[in-house]
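Entry for the shared binder. Reason: the reviewer on the internal report wants the predicted structure included alongside the sequence.
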Amino acid sequence: MELCDLLTSDSVIEKLAVTSKKQALQEVARRGALITGMDERAIFDTLLERERLGTTGVGNGIAIPHGKLPGLERPYGIFARLARPIDFDAIDDQPVDIVFALLAPTDAGADHLKALARVSRLFRDREMCEKLRGSDRADALYGLLTEPTATSHAA
């Protein structure tokens, strides 16, 4: 699964101004509702429920909130570069400034795990993270995330 299969240009938020983890998840849910047609509250509740199981702040300023929703036809991604880093209860106790939310159908199984693995590998690439942090235009962020070198670097 490639990131271009998960993202559209509408899935990218270039300067998300939030002050808390809850607010970040609310804004991601709002954008998720726009791109999926699903209920915003259902998306938010799903992401929040997953956070209650354990933080999705994976370290190095990255969070990958995710969840499964009934009624989704396929997996969707939402990328947000935060205007300012926020506390996300990350495993390394560092603030988060990059959020990639993954929404998947309830029956996604292996596809959901493959998508999570792809996103996780991408964000282990420090050079890619620097490029993402250095750009504040949605089209440039979308281009970086979906360019073939991004996914082959991460493979």
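Summary line for the report: Residues 150-155 have pLDDT under 50 and may be disordered.
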